[in-house]
Design a protein that fits this description.
The protein is an alpha/beta fold. The protein is 48% helix and 16% strand. It contains 15 helices and eight strands.
Amino acid sequence: MKKILLLVALCFFGEGFSQKIMDSIYSKKLNATRDISITLPSSYKKDKNKAYPVLIVLDGDYMQSAFDGALRYSNYWDDLPELIVVGVYQNQKDERYEDSEIDEVTGLPHGKGAQFFEFLGGELLPYIESKYKTLPFRIIAGHDVTAAFSNFYLYKDNPIFNAYINISPELTLDMEKNVASRLSNIPRPTFFYLAVADGDNNKTKEKIATLDTNIKELKNPAVSYKFDEIKNANHYSVVLHAIPNALYHIFSSYQPISNAEYKEKIVTLTSGYVDYLKNKYETSEKALGFKVSGRYSDFQAIEAAIVKNKANNEFELLAQLANKMFPKTMLGEYYLARYYEALGDAKRAAKSYQTAFTLPEVGDLTKDMMLEKADELKGQIKK
């Protein structure tokens, strides 16, 4: 309940964290103008060189605010990457069902459903990617009929989305088989999140259970799958439970080093602490397809493991990685100073601390701290 209240509050407050733009796009496929809403990250205007993954939210008129709230909170803690969120407005009375129209015989998009399918991939995405700074990592999310509709992009030989968020999908003809079949053969990293509420109707739950069973039988290492059966939720409240779970699943490799990860996977190593951090970032980049910026907190965790295990020789490797991921800051020189200090070379350590003093601060490292460290070592230097 606390999680839901927090997300609801964030949906209505904290507008300073991001910029929401109302827009519309004329679709030749639909022969109509469609309203969309774009939420830009708080850093969008501050960092001219930074690009962002794109999240397409169907039923954007009620789903987008929930995604915005979850992202605002997680972005504050740097748990999830910033995203460009595009809400596609669909009138709840008729339009969302027309957009999701399928052929009853083939089970594939038909009529306006086929036009809407082409609109999303052939018009909306190109429009967003030509107008905003985007990365080639795309997510699509939907609820009941629109969730099921989003799965049709998996039927293509080269799916245009990297991740799919299915919340209580009303699966169409043979979709519980076809989605699993497509995921079994997909060659690139793909994320699939599936959620159902215990308050959903039995027919919906039965088909989703079959899909869950079929996906769990897959042996495709390229697919990252998570299923949630949300207790004490109905068909509508399940959305607020599922959204953070889905986002944290998709971006699990992006998340900073936690206390559990430090205690269970890092400090227990006998060596290779810096290699662990390198591999963490490389694994995330391979899965997500975009470069992951280094975190100061991750470097602190590796520093703590080096100190605890007296692996001081790794400070030199950590300095090299810091210079790569935090260029033009004092972090690399700080770790180099720690390395020389551990070797007992006070002169070179003091010099590195002095060099660090001339560079921009990072994290809790300050110029005063670097100057104090250098002064402390001067007394140890033999004249």
